[in-house]
Amino acid sequence: MGRLKLFSLLFGVGLVSALVPVLTGGCTHCDEFLECTTKPGLRYVECGNKQHEFNDGVSLDDEDSAWDYCFCNRSRLLCENGTSLRMCNYMTYDGSTAAQFNDGTYAELTSAVATCLEYDGCAVANARCNFGGWYLSCARGDERVYISGEGAIFKDEKNAVDTCVARGSGGYACEPIIDDCEDLDSCASSKACSEFCSSPACFNNKNAAACIADPACRWTPK
Amino acid sequence: MTALRTLLAAALSTALALPTPALAAPAPAPVAAAPVDWSATFPPAGVSAHLGDKRPNIIVIAANPGSQAAAAAFRAALTASKKAGVVIDGQALGAVDSLDDRGIVERAKVLPVQQIVIVRVFEGSPGDPPSFIAMAYGTDGAVAVALSGTAGVPLPEPEPPTEVSVPDPVADTGDEAPKAPEEPAEAKQAREAAEQEYATKRLDGTWGALRQGTPGTLISPAQFYAALGRDDLARQVDKRRKTRLGVALGGGIAGGGLLAVGLTFLILNATAAKYGPDFGPDDPLRGGTDRVRYPLSMPVSGALLGVGAALLLGMGVFLGVYKTHPIGRRETPGLIDGHNRELRQKLNLPPEQASVRLAPSLGASNGLVLVGRF
Q: How remote is the C-alpha of B35 from its chain's centroid?
């Protein structure tokens, strides 16, 4: 009987010492994931009050840092007037966007970027992106430029699309994003429409790069 | 009948009260060879009344100087009674003056006899005739009959003999008791003191529950060995207890702690998928954590669990094998009996009667233990 009591005591001590860190650490229940916009395919989950987990392996303790990592790109866009801004896209969260200037002020993203780069206007494009990817399409007269979420400016749209698509072997397919090839400026610009300029045949694009380059298609997870 | 019983009881109590060395030692003073008619003292019917119809072979031994004539008369009376088989003297035993009754019986029981009669004669006061004591034993050492009387006074015609057991003292039957040799008050007091000391110091119990005294209080193994006078074993007990405590504490805390920690994190890790982050079935990156990060991973938790369990198991096996007692369970009764026997000898007390009893046994194997003393 005495031996049993001793074992129980020792086991209890061990158990309590093991459980204390867990118990004092609070509940580890996690919320549903959010689709991030800074990197295609990046997802964010908040567990308890201190754990902020990303599916690229990053784990952050601070909620603001986690929020920025998920929705605001780190590189800043240099403006014509010498200032700079940081682009934040919360479209997967609440549909909003924002630009954060040097002085800490905020403005609506598309107009702020257009002003910054002295373009007539900009629009968020994500039709050819997958997951939460996006880029800006800006116009000045007939001139068009495409700005990736990281702030890189491209003349060719497919290069901007390339930054907003998560690749992956298996589990992806090249799917049409338009019903009729006539919607394109030129059927010749699309491999899916070049043969028959009717319904896009995106399956002709055998890999992610070909699909990304096709304006009628999107590299889509199944 | 009552007179005879009283006589026998008084004689026996006198014999028992005498310290063994006293019995073993020669009589204080040899009886003078006064002309005593021992044949009148031992009528055939008086000395053979306890024999029954089996006609046992009997040896009659003169156990102290001056008792030869009485022993010869006793032998002659037995022969004349025709109730005994062969009646022999004690010549075959050699000198027995220095032996007590137990020693004489031990020596005589190898002979082809069924009863051993030991005769001792004691000188009376000046002018008084000598007295005698004749103890008849079976070959097993049990007293068959005890006779005593005075030279020249015939043993009364007895009624069927009374078996007397040892060591139960016969109660004093009252004022009507004849003037048999009574235990002196000092001797009685000394005997009672010895019995009390024996009752206090005697050992009893079993390996798992040792007791000392009467009725017996539980004592520790160290106290047990100290009572036996085995200080070496008592020191071993102390050393073994410390070793066991160290192993129990070390193994228990380390093993129990590791087991608990390992088990806890094993469970937490196993259930983490349920409560941990879920990045969806189409997680495109799959490079991140898919569960809550605990300080210990599943393999490490399992390893700790195994090590802890092994430590506890090893500790249990060690404690099961490495007992506090340095001696085995079967040696304990022998040690207890030896101690009690030596204690009685030291206190000049007669050996204990055979006894059989059941005692509870607690320890590695619980149950009842049959304890016997023969």
A: 46
